[in-house]
Amino acid sequence: PWTRKANRSNLYSPTGPWFDHTTGFGYYALYKSYKVNTPGRIYSSIQKTYVNKPFCYSFFYHMFGETVNKLNVYLDEFESVSSISKHNRTLIWTKYGSQGNRWFNLQRTINTPYPWRIVIEAVSGKSYLSEIAIDDTSLLSDACPPPRQCDFENDLCEFSNTNDGKADL
To answer: pLDDT tens for residues 107-165?
Structure first.
Protein backbone atom coordinates (compact mmCIF):
# COMPACT_ATOMS: atom_id res chain seq x y z
CA PRO A 1 0.00 0.00 0.00
CA TRP A 2 3.01 2.39 -0.12
CA THR A 3 3.06 4.41 -3.34
CA ARG A 4 5.20 7.13 -4.88
CA LYS A 5 3.19 10.35 -4.97
CA ALA A 6 3.61 13.98 -6.00
CA ASN A 7 1.55 17.02 -5.12
CA ARG A 8 -1.51 16.85 -2.92
CA SER A 9 -2.17 13.31 -1.74
CA ASN A 10 -5.96 13.52 -1.56
CA LEU A 11 -8.21 16.08 -3.22
CA TYR A 12 -11.40 14.99 -1.42
CA SER A 13 -10.53 14.92 2.26
CA PRO A 14 -8.28 16.81 4.69
CA THR A 15 -5.50 14.23 4.89
CA GLY A 16 -1.95 13.67 3.78
CA PRO A 17 0.67 16.14 2.54
CA TRP A 18 -0.07 18.73 -0.12
CA PHE A 19 3.55 18.72 -1.33
CA ASP A 20 6.84 16.93 -0.81
CA HIS A 21 9.28 18.03 1.87
CA THR A 22 12.22 18.87 -0.40
CA THR A 23 10.99 21.29 -3.05
CA GLY A 24 7.22 21.43 -2.78
CA PHE A 25 6.98 19.92 -6.29
CA GLY A 26 8.73 16.55 -5.98
CA TYR A 27 7.78 13.07 -4.88
CA TYR A 28 7.32 11.32 -1.54
CA ALA A 29 6.24 7.84 -0.37
CA LEU A 30 2.61 7.66 0.77
CA TYR A 31 0.82 5.00 2.78
CA LYS A 32 -2.95 4.94 2.52
CA SER A 33 -5.07 1.93 3.31
CA TYR A 34 -8.82 1.55 3.29
CA LYS A 35 -8.69 -1.41 5.71
CA VAL A 36 -8.85 -0.69 9.46
CA ASN A 37 -5.61 -1.17 11.43
CA THR A 38 -3.73 -2.59 8.44
CA PRO A 39 0.08 -2.35 8.52
CA GLY A 40 2.16 -1.57 5.47
CA ARG A 41 5.95 -1.93 5.55
CA ILE A 42 8.79 -0.73 3.40
CA TYR A 43 12.34 -2.01 3.83
CA SER A 44 15.73 -0.46 3.21
CA SER A 45 18.40 -2.57 1.59
CA ILE A 46 20.50 -4.65 3.96
CA GLN A 47 23.52 -2.64 5.03
CA LYS A 48 26.65 -4.80 5.17
CA THR A 49 29.37 -2.15 5.06
CA TYR A 50 27.89 0.21 7.66
CA VAL A 51 28.64 -1.94 10.70
CA ASN A 52 30.67 -1.37 13.86
CA LYS A 53 30.55 2.40 13.59
CA PRO A 54 27.79 4.96 14.14
CA PHE A 55 25.64 6.30 11.33
CA CYS A 56 22.78 8.76 11.40
CA TYR A 57 19.59 7.55 9.73
CA SER A 58 17.21 10.40 8.98
CA PHE A 59 13.90 10.99 7.22
CA PHE A 60 10.94 13.35 7.22
CA TYR A 61 7.45 12.11 8.07
CA HIS A 62 3.95 13.53 7.65
CA MET A 63 0.98 12.12 9.60
CA PHE A 64 -2.23 14.00 8.95
CA GLY A 65 -5.89 13.08 9.05
CA GLU A 66 -8.76 12.54 11.43
CA THR A 67 -8.05 8.85 12.05
CA VAL A 68 -4.26 8.49 11.65
CA ASN A 69 -3.05 5.53 13.69
CA LYS A 70 0.75 5.10 13.96
CA LEU A 71 4.14 5.06 12.31
CA ASN A 72 6.86 2.68 13.54
CA VAL A 73 10.55 2.42 12.69
CA TYR A 74 12.35 -0.86 13.32
CA LEU A 75 15.95 -1.98 13.07
CA ASP A 76 16.45 -5.51 11.75
CA GLU A 77 19.82 -7.05 12.64
CA PHE A 78 21.08 -10.16 10.81
CA GLU A 79 23.66 -12.60 12.11
CA SER A 80 24.06 -13.78 8.52
CA VAL A 81 22.85 -12.17 5.30
CA SER A 82 22.59 -15.60 3.74
CA SER A 83 19.48 -16.20 5.85
CA ILE A 84 17.52 -12.95 5.86
CA SER A 85 14.43 -14.63 7.30
CA LYS A 86 16.29 -14.94 10.63
CA HIS A 87 16.75 -11.54 12.21
CA ASN A 88 16.29 -9.62 15.43
CA ARG A 89 13.77 -6.78 15.04
CA THR A 90 13.90 -3.85 17.48
CA LEU A 91 11.46 -0.94 17.61
CA ILE A 92 13.57 2.24 17.58
CA TRP A 93 10.79 4.84 17.26
CA THR A 94 7.01 5.16 17.14
CA LYS A 95 4.51 8.00 16.77
CA TYR A 96 0.72 7.90 17.22
CA GLY A 97 -2.07 10.05 15.83
CA SER A 98 -2.36 13.03 13.54
CA GLN A 99 0.56 15.45 13.79
CA GLY A 100 -1.01 18.23 11.74
CA ASN A 101 -0.45 19.16 8.13
CA ARG A 102 3.34 19.50 8.26
CA TRP A 103 6.58 17.56 7.86
CA PHE A 104 8.71 16.51 10.86
CA ASN A 105 12.28 15.19 10.93
CA LEU A 106 13.31 11.97 12.65
CA GLN A 107 16.96 11.08 13.28
CA ARG A 108 18.27 7.94 14.94
CA THR A 109 21.85 6.80 15.41
CA ILE A 110 22.49 3.24 14.17
CA ASN A 111 25.52 1.44 15.58
CA THR A 112 25.56 -2.33 15.40
CA PRO A 113 28.12 -5.08 14.72
CA TYR A 114 25.62 -6.91 12.50
CA PRO A 115 24.33 -6.31 8.97
CA TRP A 116 21.09 -4.37 9.32
CA ARG A 117 18.14 -2.74 7.58
CA ILE A 118 15.48 -0.19 8.46
CA VAL A 119 11.81 -1.17 8.35
CA ILE A 120 9.23 1.61 8.22
CA GLU A 121 5.75 0.47 9.15
CA ALA A 122 2.60 2.56 8.86
CA VAL A 123 -0.62 1.29 10.44
CA SER A 124 -3.90 2.57 9.06
CA GLY A 125 -6.57 4.16 11.17
CA LYS A 126 -10.31 3.60 11.46
CA SER A 127 -11.27 5.13 8.11
CA TYR A 128 -9.91 6.50 4.85
CA LEU A 129 -9.21 9.81 6.63
CA SER A 130 -5.67 8.78 7.51
CA GLU A 131 -2.51 9.14 5.47
CA ILE A 132 1.15 8.78 6.39
CA ALA A 133 4.02 9.91 4.17
CA ILE A 134 7.81 9.87 4.33
CA ASP A 135 10.40 11.82 2.34
CA ASP A 136 14.13 12.55 2.15
CA THR A 137 15.63 9.47 3.78
CA SER A 138 19.38 9.64 4.33
CA LEU A 139 22.23 7.77 5.97
CA LEU A 140 25.11 9.95 7.11
CA SER A 141 28.49 9.04 8.58
CA ASP A 142 28.82 9.48 12.34
CA ALA A 143 26.21 9.69 15.08
CA CYS A 144 23.23 12.00 14.75
CA PRO A 145 23.76 15.51 16.11
CA PRO A 146 22.00 16.41 19.34
CA PRO A 147 18.51 17.77 18.70
CA ARG A 148 18.18 21.55 18.46
CA GLN A 149 14.64 21.54 19.71
CA CYS A 150 12.76 19.45 22.23
CA ASP A 151 9.94 17.17 21.10
CA PHE A 152 9.65 15.45 24.52
CA GLU A 153 9.90 12.03 22.85
CA ASN A 154 12.56 10.67 25.21
CA ASP A 155 12.48 12.89 28.28
CA LEU A 156 11.54 16.34 29.62
CA CYS A 157 14.50 17.99 27.84
CA GLU A 158 15.87 19.59 31.00
CA PHE A 159 12.50 21.12 31.88
CA SER A 160 11.26 20.35 35.39
CA ASN A 161 8.10 20.56 37.45
CA THR A 162 7.87 22.94 40.37
CA ASN A 163 8.95 21.19 43.57
CA ASP A 164 5.91 22.17 45.60
CA GLY A 165 3.29 21.16 43.03
CA LYS A 166 2.03 24.74 42.73
CA ALA A 167 2.01 26.71 39.51
CA ASP A 168 4.50 29.55 39.20
CA LEU A 169 2.85 32.86 38.36
So the answer is: 999 999 999 999 999 998 887 777 899 999 999 999 999 876 777 777 777 676 766 55
- Around Cβ 114, how many Cβ atoms within 10 Å? 17
In the chain, the N- to C-terminal Cα span, in Å, equals 51
Amino acid at 98: S
Closest-CA residue to 49 (of 73, 81, 74, 82)? 81
Distance CA 36, CA 113 (A): 38
**E-only strand ranges, the chain:** 2-6, 27-31, 39-43, 55-64, 70-77, 88-96, 104-110, 116-123, 131-141
Degrees, nearest 5: CA angle 39-12-128 = 25
The 10s digit of each residue's pLDDT in 66-92 is: 888 999 999 999 987 776 678 999 999
**Residue 47 gets which letter from DSSP?**
B
